[in-house]
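step=encode ok
step=design start
structure_in=
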């Protein structure tokens, strides 16, 4: 992974749809619903890429092509022993000149993180954006996937029981948050996985995104 990428926050645009939530049951007890599917996010400062002409310039007048990751969609199958997650997203690009047809190939990555700090895997790929004659805007679709052992993304039974046990107003521990227990919090963290995507940037491109 790009050295500079490791120094920036990873979960910048966390998306809903793969996580769990809290629900009140029919007796007004609180039950916790949790999914083994990884959360999906775009790494901070990597959702955009800028190409300059000449490449070594970062002058706004030299901006050649700029692209952004948008419209992220996720699917996840957690029915088996392995959780299969897939993310697709659009790459919307615009160029400074409308003359001639042109193809621009942009590199991107997908990493699987555990507990927010452990890099489990990394994929690198490329997406091609095609500009038609006379057009300054174009769009392409890219995808990435991740497989996670369900046992790793599942909570230990004792932790699951503490989190999912129904609690009612009036119970002795009704006001005690189980997440206040460091062991419960650590177990949750270990079972949390993220599928994180972004453009594969050079150090210069990453610095440009962080400061513009």
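sequence_out=
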């Amino acid at each position: 992974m790009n050295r500079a990428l490791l120094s920036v926050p990873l979960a910048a645009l966390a998306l809903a749809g793969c996580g769990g939530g809290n629900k009140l049951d029919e007796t007004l007890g609180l039950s916790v619903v949790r999914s083994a599917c990884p959360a999906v996010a775009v790494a901070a400062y990597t959702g955009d890429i800028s190409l300059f002409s000449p490449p070594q310039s970062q002058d706004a007048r030299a901006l050649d092509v700029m692209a952004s990751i948008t419209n992220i969609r996720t699917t996840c199958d957690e029915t088996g022993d392995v959780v299969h997650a897939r993310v697709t997203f659009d790459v919307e690009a615009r160029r400074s000149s409308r003359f001639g047809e042109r193809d621009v190939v942009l590199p991107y990555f997908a990493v699987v993180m555990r507990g927010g700090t452990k890099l489990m895997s990394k994929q690198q790929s490329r997406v091609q954006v095609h500009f038609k004659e006379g057009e300054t805007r174009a769009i392409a679709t890219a995808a990435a996937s991740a497989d996670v052992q369900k046992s790793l993304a599942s909570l230990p039974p004792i932790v699951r029981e503490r989190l999912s046990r129904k609690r009612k107003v009036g119970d002795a521990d009704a006001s005690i948050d189980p997440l206040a227990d460091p062991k419960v919090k650590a177990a949750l963290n270990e079972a949390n996985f993220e599928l994180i995507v972004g453009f594969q940037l050079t150090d210069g491109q990453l610095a440009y995104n962080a400061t513009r």
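step=design ok
step=annotate ok -> The two ends are 23 Å apart (CA to CA).
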